[in-house]
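Sequence design from tokenized structure. All designs in this work follow the same two-part layout: the structure record, then the generated sequence. An example of the structure record is given first.
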């Protein structure tokens, strides 16, 4: 936790020199290697731990997540099948976050979340909240997050935090993520009534602090994602606790009262797969920051490694969201659209090697895959100007990356699946009145992408429509979105 990785590895290796069959040390060493992006070492450590203790809690799922993070798809189907069999048998085999990327079955998402939450909170016995004497003049909202920094969640929600009605709400940020004083953190510190860094505090200390502030609503912006601290919510820090934005699925926990969604994300017939009650926002569940800056810098294609001519397909989603089925479609599109390239986000060098190898198997030369490295947000948005069409992933859609593309005027094509995570892009496209870019099957996804890449007039008409809708439709109206969310807060505050 202190990020003293060298010391940690030395400790694990000393332990293993004493007891070579110590599964916990192999697993912990693997976790350190994963943090360091030493993926081969991490995978080898996890595999060794599993060979010693095949039923090690959640380790098989952690290994699967590492492998999809580097797009290592050898034996993908058999590995996934093994995880699903064990999950359906109630085993502690996989995290709910990993399940979002490999399955659109919401029953399995709920089961994974329930098992994961039960393990993380099994020894917690919450002390009941004291009854409130009366309603206060202002509603006190606690936003809890590991991501009050340069992070997709903060990039989406910064404008929302700033737009809250200061006469009606007091907002408190409880920050427990990685340290660092970047520009986004500085901006957020000014957006809240109080910004409280609780990174170094224990769960009990955070609970006591939150309860002493007499919060009315506690909003978890992290959920089952990295650096989460759901134990805080298991203790209950407010009469109403809400799962919102950071995790696109159910928490599978009795101590979250509501999840914020919209009718596209969770149709009524799917409500049974959520442990929370559903709060429906009228347009889309996702906030957007209308102040998001696009740099004036005009990149040349050569600067970014793109060829001077040719259609540019792109997907800047996290690499673990790319599945073999989606990648095969992309390769067929490159085969059919002469001179086209596919522009992808590069999270790690292993991804580059593995995807280039997969492309060769599909008859595509590696130079037609272009990899984009990280850059500051405003310039990252500026490079979107060179994209012709953004291709979404499934079953885990583009979320912030979808908003980025649309904000920059880039049409986005998505397949709308059967889970929350696989319907986010459809929700955003509906809110910006571009539902013609939402398809109902992967075969339609492929044919629509081919049409848009080979019929310039159709694609141009979509770009022009997007340009008109960008500032007039609901998707990027931060103020209107905030009022809709506040109306929801008023409802649950009055009738918790």
């Amino acid at each position: 936790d202190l990020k003293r990785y060298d010391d940690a590895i030395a400790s694990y290796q000393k332990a293993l020199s004493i007891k070579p069959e110590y599964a916990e040390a192999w697993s912990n060493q693997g976790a350190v290697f994963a943090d360091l992006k030493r993926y081969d070492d991490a995978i080898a450590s996890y595999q060794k731990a599993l060979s010693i203790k095949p039923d090690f809690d959640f380790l098989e799922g952690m290994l699967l997540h590492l492998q999809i993070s580097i797009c290592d798809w050898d034996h993908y189907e058999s590995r996934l099948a093994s995880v699903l069999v064990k999950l359906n048998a109630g085993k502690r085999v996989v995290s709910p976050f990993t399940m979002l990327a490999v399955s659109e079955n919401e029953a399995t998402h709920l089961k994974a979340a329930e098992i994961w939450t039960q393990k993380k909170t099994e020894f917690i016995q919450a002390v009941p909240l004291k009854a409130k004497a009366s309603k206060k003049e202002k509603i006190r909202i606690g936003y809890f997050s590991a991501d009050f920094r340069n992070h997709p969640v903060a990039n989406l929600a910064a404008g929302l935090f700033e737009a809250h009605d200061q006469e009606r709400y007091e907002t408190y940020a409880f920050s427990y993520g990685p340290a660092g004083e970047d520009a986004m953190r500085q901006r957020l510190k000014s957006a809240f009534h109080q910004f409280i860094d609780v990174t170094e505090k224990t769960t009990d200390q955070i609970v006591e602090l939150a309860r002493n502030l007499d919060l009315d609503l506690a909003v978890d912006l992290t959920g089952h994602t990295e650096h989460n601290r759901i134990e805080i919510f298991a203790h209950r820090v407010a009469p109403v606790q809400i799962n919102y934005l950071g995790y696109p699925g159910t928490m599978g926990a009795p101590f979250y009262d509501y999840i914020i969604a919209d009718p596209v994300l969770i149709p009524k017939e799917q409500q049974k797969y959520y442990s929370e009650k559903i709060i429906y926002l009228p347009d889309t569940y996702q906030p957007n920051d209308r102040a998001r800056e696009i740099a004036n810098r005009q990149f040349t294609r050569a600067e970014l490694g793109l060829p001077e001519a040719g259609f540019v397909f792109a997907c800047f989603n996290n690499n673990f969201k790319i599945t073999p089925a989606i990648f095969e479609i992309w390769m067929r599109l490159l085969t059919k659209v002469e001179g086209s390239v596919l522009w992808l986000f590069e999270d790690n060098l292993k991804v580059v090697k593995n995807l280039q190898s997969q492309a060769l198997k599909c008859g595509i030369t590696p130079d037609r895959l272009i990899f984009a490295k990280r850059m500051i947000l405003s310039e990252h948005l500026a490079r979107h100007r060179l994209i012709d069409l953004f291709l979404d992933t499934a079953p885990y859609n583009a979320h912030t990356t979808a908003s980025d593309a649309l904000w920059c005027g880039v049409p986005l094509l998505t397949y709308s699946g059967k889970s929350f995570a696989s319907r986010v892009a459809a929700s955003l496209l509906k809110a910006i009145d571009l539902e013609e870019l939402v398809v109902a099957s992967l075969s339609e996804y492929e044919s629509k992408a081919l049409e848009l890449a080979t019929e310039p007039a159709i694609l141009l008409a979509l770009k022009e429509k997007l340009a008109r809708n960008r500032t007039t439709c609901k998707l990027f109206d931060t103020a209107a979105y905030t009022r809709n969310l506040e109306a929801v807060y008023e409802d649950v505050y009055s009738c918790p």
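The longest strand covers residues 139-145. We note this feature because it recurs in several other targets discussed in the main text.
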